[in-house]
Amino acid sequence: METKTSSSNFIKNIVAEDLSSGKVKEVITRFPPEPNGYLHIGHAKSICLNFELADEFKGKTNLRFDDTNPVKEDVEYVESIKQDVQWLGFEWDGLFFASDYFGEMYERALLLIRKGLAYVDDQTADQIRETRGTLTAPGQESPYRNRTVEENLDLFGRMKDGEFADGQKVLRAKIDMASPNVNLRDPILYRVVHAFHHNTGDKWCIYPMYAFAHPLEDAIEGVTHSICTLEFEDQRPFYDWVIRESEMKWVPRQYEFARLNLTNTVMSKRKLKQLVDEKAVDGWDDPRMPTISGLRRKGYTPEAIRAFCREIGVAKSYGIVDERMLEHFIREDLKLKALRTMAVLQPLKVVITNYPEGQVEWLDAENNSENPDMGHRQIPFSREIYIERDDFMDNPPPKYFRLFPGNEVRLKHAYFIKCEEVVLDSEGNVVELRCTYDPETKSGSGFAGRKVKGTIHWVEATHAVPAQFRLYEPLITDEEEEEGQSFLDHLNPNSLETLEGFVEQGMKESVGGDKYQFFRHGYFNVDPKDSTAGHPVFNRIVSLKSSFTV
Ligand code: ATP
Ligand code: MG
């Protein structure tokens, strides 16, 4: 587990050195998502890294959409990505699309053909894969590898003009089919795809491959430090080849860091999209999703996510971060900010038989016991209240200090009450408790007559606001996928629990995004989509305690 703070992040050291040696004058980074899905917490790591690095050295960061695959991409994703980056608190300098550079990329491909470094191949995708060789055996050269420059120029022009069907021809780099690095065995540069592109429409029917396009994009934008995840380490020689042979004026450098993995968390856009498409979740922003929009809807703050990303640092090796670490940071962020109130998730009615009928008194309650600046509020108290169903037991085990017949507990911010009678329905279920209260024991009165061991929370019945509570568990747990199974077979059937209960009257006007700490239940966020006037919906962000320490 990567738990150590890595303030000496290795990429930062490289940047500092490049600036002091004069190798670069200004650091330029980029965050380059493919708009084929919503961003997830792993992307947040890359966003924080790129933007914070440039900020620290007074440089620039571009947001660039790597939109070279029109079949999978969509403007909906472009818009959501922009929103998420801004919500995290970052402002990009340039906003670019790989598709802005299709003209230039085409020119660079022509240059490679003219230099004898690229050729049109008629083999099928399968044939190309099969002749690539393996880690131990070299690949075989294509029968089309030695076409003349003229023939290649002619065929590539006709690919562009739409004469060929998808898959009928590709443009390949001519490097070395025996290279020990498989990525250098004549990788594909361009393919034919007859598809509508969200930016360029029907202008193109050939599209550059990511590995060819990416270095060109970096060079065109003058990116100094092109930071990507470790899987791309073996691509670096080809990255450098593209820059060199395409004769790009600016030479960017690629650096790799370990991608973020979290326990019990699916982190691949492809799989997340499957969950959405199969309706296993309620859209990309379902609070159970590890997407930025899901975390936002669940109640995470940008501050908590940024603090988490800073803490996990930039390791050069793979590791799995405990999801509880992310939870730790939202607790830390909300501890002193959130109003601490009472909510009853599974209500049980309590009648206080010796409290005058029709009387309501207003009791003083602190808004946040750890932050006096948040002040106080008044909460109503009367003859009827709701308590939590599991704060009562008919036959309690030893050391149960909450309510049971004959026992006395403290009501938070109010009085001691004693359980005198249990009302059952015809099936023997507890439907109501009849208690007495002691007026001497009012909270804040300094009463020292006797002590009780349990304190429970409650909501006054006549002012209570009905509310829904949504409690979450991981969507998927970290079990090994067996042969022939999909990760969808490991969906946790209990990932969402919905309860109907009550909150204090002061929360009636809550709006989406308001955050509270509910006594004993944890931190909750008002759901921005499903809450209605008079019936707020609360998503549990995180419970109060964890065994985890950073
Ligand atoms: P996925 O596999 O989830 O689809 P991706 O890498 O294909 O992710 P891109 O849109 O290509 O998604 O990623 C944009 C940037 O975010 C890339 O620079 C990529 O390296 C980075 N990134 C993606 N996933 C992670 C992760 N789990 N941890 C850190 N960085 C990530
Ligand atoms: Mg990708």
Automatic annotation (TrEMBL):
It is found in: Cytoplasm. One of its GO terms (molecular function) is ATP binding. Keywords: Aminoacyl-tRNA synthetase, ATP-binding, Cytoplasm, Ligase, Nucleotide-binding, Protein biosynthesis. L-glutamine binds at residues 66, 210. ATP binds at residues 34-36, 40-46, 229, 259-260, 267-269. A motif ('KMSKS' region) lies at residues 266-270. Pfam families: tRNA-synt_1c (PF00749), tRNA-synt_1c_C (PF03950), tRNA-synt_1c_C2 (PF20974). Monomer. Belongs to the class-I aminoacyl-tRNA synthetase family. This is Glutamine--tRNA ligase. It comes from Cohnella endophytica. The gene is glnS.
